[in-house]
Amino acid sequence: MEKEVLAILENILGEDLSNQMDDNYFDNGLMDSMATVDLVLALQDKFGINVPVSEFDRSKWDTPNKVIERVKELADN
Amino acid sequence: MAALFIMDFKWVNMIRDILSKIDENAINDPNAIVYDNLGKQNNYADLKEYSDSLAAYIDQLGIATGSPIMIFGGQEFEMIASFLAAAKSGHPYIPVDINSSEERIESIIKIANPALIIAIKELPVKISNRPIVELKQLQDIFTENSNYQIEHAVSGEDTFYIIFTSGTTGAPKGVQISSDNLLSFVNWIIGKKFNLPKQPITLSQPPFSFDLSVMDWVPTLVLGGQLKAVSRELADDFKRLFQTLPEYNPQVFVSTPSFVDLCLIDPDFNEKKMSNACYFLFCGEELTKKTALKLIDRFPKAKIFNTYGPTETTVAISQVEITKKIIEKSDRLPIGYPKEDTGVAIFGNQQQLLPEGETGEIVIYGQSVSKGYLNNPEKTQAAFFSYKGQHAYRTGDLGTLDAKGLLHYCGRKDFQIKLHGYRIELEEVNHALLKSRFVKQAVAVPRYDDDHKVSQLLAWVVPRENDFAKKIDLTKALKEDLKEVMMPYMIPSRFVYKESLPISANGKIDVKKAVAEVNNG
């Protein structure tokens, strides 16, 4: 699952983030609102989860590791 | 007699003067809300009082007739009141967005030489050689409540607004839109082709420095309607945005397809929760079949219009309603039928007129075409000319006209791209990249998605020698440098470091090769 999340991020951001698992990609300008839209759609598609966007808190999705955590949580629900 | 009657009848839905029509709405219904910014509301009486008082203040400053006024800020009501005040007192206004880089602001001041600056938000640059009105003083001026008589407002060929766009040499170009240009545009939007609601409630999302905003605020005010403001902070905060949209519940959406793509990730963005939404007007970038289909699925009863036009021809000049049938039979959605007073011709490489169905450069002529770029005769002459006795503009867009006179878009002639609706000259990005002390050589490279839309802007950089331990540190330092010299939306999101760049046969950086590698590699 980690690999798949990283593949999605690489596809959207064009960069392999496997050595930046805890770097905030909003802060370094790699991710923006529109890329977040792509991320949410790709995660829903790939894992069959529902990302509750009306409760979306950017600070819980701002590193690769946090995305992996969120996907795990949502898949367990 | 009969002919006269028909002409009069045609005028029923048309207006002759934007400023007096908005004032008339204020007199007829002063308590109607005109602007709602997250519950902070202003009515039409405020709009008239503020703009009249500020116009009177500008008059007594004694600045030269017709000299431009720069208006700096975000998505505030004071911006619109100031635009109208400038126009009432006979001055073009230049909207400059709060997210502009210092260098952008400085070059606009240098090119336009504004006689007055109204700073609704704090300016990041020092102003010493011209008058400036800041928010606190502006608020005092607004309530002086002068009974202003419109006597020398902008009209006819006078410039109503100047919007700066990306220029290839790094210097932005100020597109001058006249009162006549704007009047023709507004009459088209409020006319029977779109058939908007009587007093529309309209979402106001694009920044005022982006001319798509003219499509929401001017027609809405002329029709006595209400604007619901979405600031950039709100658009970036999904949770708050998705709470606010159903509360706003607008009838008319004027936006880029990108903004609607963003809204569509919320499953509650649908007819049930947004019960008033019945019109979607798109411009600024390509509307894909995918976005249109999703939207029709969520809002089966709404009317969706695709429109097209560069800033140089007053926001948009063509429109077509996008139905399921059109989506099914198109590979790429059409961009519309030209408005009545404006023509479209397709030119070949030798500037010859191409027949129907052939692809060439889209040339626009007639009532919508700007007089040219402010204080820039060279660029004006390169892009504007006379065709069929009318003012014409070479768009640099490629397209075809079909047998029905419907226009289809086929890409760009040059290195201009649209990223989430923002118009960017790649050469301008290259210029800015080279200003950084860390860069030896650089080229901006767009990455495209499956629908031929730019999804990301990259920079290929040959760095100068540096002491950074990690690439990410170099990237961070570089981005800091670039914030000073370019608009945030132009800054590449990703930097790829190279030993050298591909060079073409004529010795220049081979952009096409870089684009091909990024998109196929």
From TrEMBL, chain A:
Give the subcellular location: Cytoplasm
An example GO biological process term is: cell wall organization
- Where does it sit, as one GO cellular component term? cytoplasm
Q: Give the pathway listed in the UniProt entry for this protein.
A: Cell wall biogenesis; lipoteichoic acid biosynthesis
List residues of the Carrier domain. Answer: 1-75
Briefly state the modifications made to the protein after translation.
4'-phosphopantetheine is transferred from CoA to a specific serine of apo-DCP.
Q: What is its main location?
A: cytoplasm
A matching Pfam family: PP-binding
* Molecular function per GO: D-alanyl carrier activity
Entry-annotated residues carrying O-(pantetheine 4'-phosphoryl)serine? 33
Q: What are the record keywords, sorted? A: Cell wall biogenesis/degradation, Cytoplasm, Phosphopantetheine, Phosphoprotein
Q: Which domain of life is it from?
A: Bacteria
- Function, in words: Carrier protein involved in the D-alanylation of lipoteichoic acid (LTA). The loading of thioester-linked D-alanine onto DltC is catalyzed by D-alanine--D-alanyl carrier protein ligase DltA. The DltC-carried D-alanyl group is further transferred to cell membrane phosphatidylglycerol (PG) by forming an ester bond, probably catalyzed by DltD. D-alanylation of LTA plays an important role in modulating the properties of the cell wall in Gram-positive bacteria, influencing the net charge of the cell wall.
Kindly provide the name given to this protein in its UniProt entry.
Answer: D-alanyl carrier protein
What organism is this sequence from?
Answer: Oenococcus oeni AWRIB429
Its organism's taxonomic lineage begins at: Bacteria, Bacillati, Bacillota, Bacilli, Lactobacillales
